[in-house]
Amino acid sequence: MVKFIIGLLILVIALLLAVLAVQKDPGFVLIKYADYSLETSLAFGIVAVVIAGLVIQLLLRLLMAIWRLPRTLRKRKEKRRIDKSRRLSNQGLIDLAEGRFAQAETSLLKLVQYADNPLLNYLAAARAAQLQGKYDQRDNYLKDAHEAKPEAVIAIGVTQGELQLASKQTERALATLTHLRTIMPKHDYILKLLVRVYLQLEEWTTLSELLPEVRKKKLFDEARMKDIELKAYVGLLDETALTDPDSLDKAWAKIPKDYHANTDLILYYIDVAQRNGQDMRALEQILVKSINQKWDAKAVEFYGGLEVEDASGQLAVAEKWLQEYGNSDVLLLALGRICIRLKLWGKAQSYLEASIGAKPTAQNCLELADLLTREELGQAEKAGQYYQQGLHLCLRAKC
């Protein structure tokens, strides 16, 4: 409007200047056609030509506006729909966040064809459908998302894998994520989801193969990472013991060296290997090496109960620790148990009494009581005292 007024003012000024220019010599303009003629002053002729030009221009603009009217109306209607679609999309996301899943699904899909990015609407609608337990509908929305934007295969696939995993469709999640990993083998989040899938499926061998890469990329915090690794390696040992017991040593060798110093895993490996008839000498060496590197009461107690062929050598190793580490109740208990297997009754009694003296526990009291009831010692009355003490300690410890 401002441009029109400025243009009109310029035109009026130009006309006034033109009229003033011809005022001294008005001249004339003659227009003749056939038998008709029109004569007027030059000033009037200029004004008439300008007015006629303006009228023609206005008529042309009016005709063009009429010609463009249907397209203009369509554009305005489409713009209103786009604006409404944007409002519905925003409301749908708010409803999804606030837990109104049915309303969110409706809002996200209404006028979705006019959305700025239909892919996001379909993915959000899939989540809303999942949270209502509508898994088939969820899958349909994911198909619609793929049709809306086929190149977004990773975004769609990751969403699908997440939703399948959350709905306990673990096998389907595995198929989805395995396919995605072939497309994007270095995608961190896909790898992280695969770890969760393998944990749920207890696919320990495959999970164990992934863990070095997972640790390198630091996809989990350290505490969670250690928990996953320990579960995987324990599961690997169990799996191997069931399917191929002769390969237990190979399975142990596959476990990273850092975990060869993990007491819990070492004890579990030795226990599994022992139950599967593995060479006890090799297992004993693993445990002794571990204790020599890092003193651990649990490992020492386990060593005392380990039945090896050379019990005398076992006793010598434990007595060497006694010189190095002193009168530990756990070590003295282990020595007492080894002496019992060697039938060194008096020595066993001395070690067990020393263990109780260092720290009375239910284990050393009951072990000594059992020893004293043996025919070789025959101290039933004294054994009863230790049974009573052990039971009291057990009840206090809620064992």
SSE layout:
Blueprint: H1 2-21, E1 29-33, E2 36-40, H2 42-98, H3 101-109, H4 118-131, H5 135-148, H6 153-166, H7 170-183, H8 188-201, H9 204-217, H10 222-243, H11 248-254, H12 263-275, H13 280-293, H14 297-304, H15 311-325, H16 329-341, H17 345-358, H18 362-372, H19 380-396
Antiparallel strand pairs: 1-2
Helix pairs in contact: 2-3, 2-4, 3-4, 4-5, 6-7, 6-8, 7-8, 8-9, 9-10, 10-12, 12-13, 14-16, 15-16, 16-17, 16-18, 17-18, 18-19
Structure write-up:
- The protein is 76% helix and 3% strand.
- The chain contains 19 helices and 2 strands.
- The chain has helices at 2-21, 42-98, 101-109, 118-131, 135-148, 153-166, 170-183, 188-201, 204-217, 222-243, 248-254, 263-275, 280-293, 297-304, 311-325, 329-341, 345-358, 362-372, 380-396; strands spanning 29-33, 36-40.
- Strand 1 (29-33) and strand 2 form a beta hairpin.
- The relative contact order is 0.03.
Largest sheet: 2 strands, antiparallel
Number of helices: 19
Strand content: under 5%
Name of the CATH homologous superfamily of the domain at 81-183: Tetratricopeptide repeat domain
Radius of gyration: 45 Å
Order of helices and strands: HEEHHHHHHHHHHHHHHHHHH
Order the strands across the largest sheet as they lie in space: 1-2
* Fold-level CATH name of the domain at 81-183: Serine Threonine Protein Phosphatase 5, Tetratricopeptide repeat
How many strands in all? 2
- Give the class from helix and strand content and strand pairing: mainly alpha
Shape: rod-shaped
Mean pLDDT: 86
CATH class of the domain at 81-183 equals Mainly Alpha
Task: Show unreliable segments.
Answer: none
What is the CA-CA span between the terminal residues? 92 Å
How would you describe the oligomerization state of the chains in this entry? Answer: single chain
Quickly give the CATH architecture of the domain at 81-183.
Answer: Alpha Horseshoe
